[in-house]
Structure formats: structure tokens, C-alpha cells
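User: Before I run my own analysis I want an independent prediction to cross-check against. Here's the chain; please return only the C-alpha cells and, at the end, one sentence I can use as a sanity check.
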Amino acid sequence: MYLSGVGVNPSPQGQPWYPARTHATQLALSTKLELAAISWLAILREVMTDTPVRLDKWLWAARFFKTRGLAKDAIEGGKVHYDGARAKPSRNVEVGAMLRMRLGFDEKTVEVLALSDKRRGAPEAQLLYRETEESVEKRLAMAAQRKAQNAGQAAPDHKPSKKDRRDIRKMKDSFNA
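Assistant: C-alpha cells:
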């Protein structure tokens, strides 16, 4: 039994209705999936490079830092460790290397999956690395701990007045004296 104009066939044994799929529909669906996979592979090939890439440039391309200067400062400041040791900004990155980075309150451990010296969009940048499971669990635990720590501190209900600010300053000065 076919309902004209609706495009659905009743299922056997009185089960719920399901859409009719023709061979052409299935072929179009598989073609779309193949095109999507091919486009991601093309993006990955375009992003990846075979030439050596400096550590500061890779961190910038992988979108961990907004500028190469910030990446360089973090590396020189000891916030980035390459395979467990402090690194220099000019260090060449290799596929399979483990990087440990301190970003604000968080500490991430990532494995380098691909090399790139071009800064692209976030989806393409995430193809360059994989964060370890331990790192994700540790970051989530630390975030929950910070959230629980701040839960006990209530925000003030109003901005201090001029008199309140004077009293606060007087109290601070008495502690420092």
C-alpha cells in the first residue's frame, strides 16, 4: 500500500511508518558522506606540512596562543614543556611529541598529531593535536574544585559607598601598620 504524495510506505506488521528509501536516495546520501570525508581530508592535507615547524609557530597555528609573541613568552617563561623538558621557541616540533602547557589556571597535556605553520580556523586547528584523557580529567576536577571554593564567597549586594571605601582603607592601613 502506498500513500500518494506522502512518500512514505507503511511498515509490515503494523509497525510505525518509515520513509521510503530508493536506491537513488541511498546513493545520494553515501555520496554526500564521501564528499564530507574528502573535504576534511583535503583540509587536513592543506593544513599539514612536511617541513620542520618551530614550537612557537606550531602553538600559534594550533590556536593555543593569539600571537606568536605570546607563545614565545610562554615558552621562555617555562609554561610549555616539550617531552617533559623545558624548550626553546626555535625547537622543531615532531609528530608524536607530548607537550605540557600551563594556560591560566589550567594545565593541558597534548600529543602532536600533525604539523602546520599556518593559522586556520578552530576545527582545522583541533586536527593538529589530541589532549590526553588524564589531562581532561585533571582539568575538569580542578575546575570543579575552583567552583566549589568560590561557592562559599557571596558577592556583595551593592557597590561600596564613599564612606564604606574610607572605612575599608582605614582598616587595611591599620593591619599594615
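Sanity check: The chain is about 45% helix and 15% strand.
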